[in-house]
C-alpha cells in the first residue's frame, strides 16, 4: 500500500496510511451527521476544532495514565495515531439522563444518575448501532470478557477525569461516547476522538435548556450557532490547558 493512501473514510474522519505501518494519519472533516447519518450537513471549522479539542484531551488523559492512539497533531485538522484494530463497540457513559436514555426509559431530561451508567452499542451502521446486553455482546464475539472488564474500568476512569476537567471549564459532562482499539502489542488503547461530536456538554453558566447546549445536539435539533458552541468549548479547553502549562 502506498504512502498516504486512503485506508478508510468514516462520517467524521478520513484515515490515511503513512510510511510506518503502525502509524496512521487521521484527517478530521467538517461533515456533520446525526440519527445514524439520516441527517447530514456541515459545520464550519468543525474538523480543526474537534482535532484540537481531542488532541488536548488525549494528552491530558496520558498524564493520568490513560493510554490512547494519539501521537501528535502535525496540522490543525490532522492527528497522527497508532494503528489499532477497533473493537466494534460504542461505549457510552452517562452521568445525567438525556437523549435515548430518556426516550427508552421515561426518565426526565436532566435526572442525575446515582452512579455512572456504562452501555455498549454494536458499532454497525447497517443495524443502526443497537444497544447490547452482555450476553448478546458475547454471543456476537465482539470482545472477550476480559476486554469488556478492562474497557468498563477504563471508561469509568476516563469519565472521572473528564467530569473534573469539564467542570473546570464550567461545563457539565452529561454523557459521551468512547471507542477502543487493540494495537500491535495487543494493548487496549482509547481511540477515535473526544469532542462536542461525541460528548453532551452543558454550559453551567446558562440556565436556559437550549442556550446551555454546547455539543452536536445543536445540529441534531436545529438550534443554530453550532460552530460558535464548538468554538466556545475549544476556548475553554485551551484556557484550562494553557493555565496548567503556566502553572496557574
TrEMBL record:
EC nos: 6.3.2.6
Catalytic activity: 5-amino-1-(5-phospho-D-ribosyl)imidazole-4-carboxylate + L-aspartate + ATP = (2S)-2-[5-amino-1-(5-phospho-beta-D-ribosyl)imidazole-4-carboxamido]succinate + ADP + phosphate + 2 H(+)
Keyword DNA repair carried by entry: no
Pfam families, A to Z: SAICAR_synt
InterPro entries associated with the record: SAICAR_synt/ADE2_N, SAICAR_synt_PurC, SAICAR_synth, SAICAR_synthetase, SAICAR_synthetase_CS
Pathway in which the depicted protein is active: Purine metabolism; IMP biosynthesis via de novo pathway; 5-amino-1-(5-phospho-D-ribosyl)imidazole-4-carboxamide from 5-amino-1-(5-phospho-D-ribosyl)imidazole-4-carboxylate: step 1/2
Alphabetical keyword list: ATP-binding, Ligase, Nucleotide-binding, Purine biosynthesis
GO molecular function: ATP binding; phosphoribosylaminoimidazolesuccinocarboxamide synthase activity
Keyword Phosphoprotein part of the UniProt annotation: no
SAICAR synthetase/ADE2 N-terminal domain mapped to chain residues: 6-236
GO BP field: 'de novo' IMP biosynthetic process; cobalamin biosynthetic process
NCBIfam families noted in UniProt: purC (TIGR00081)
Family: Belongs to the SAICAR synthetase family.
Protein name in UniProt: Phosphoribosylaminoimidazole-succinocarboxamide synthase
Gene: purC
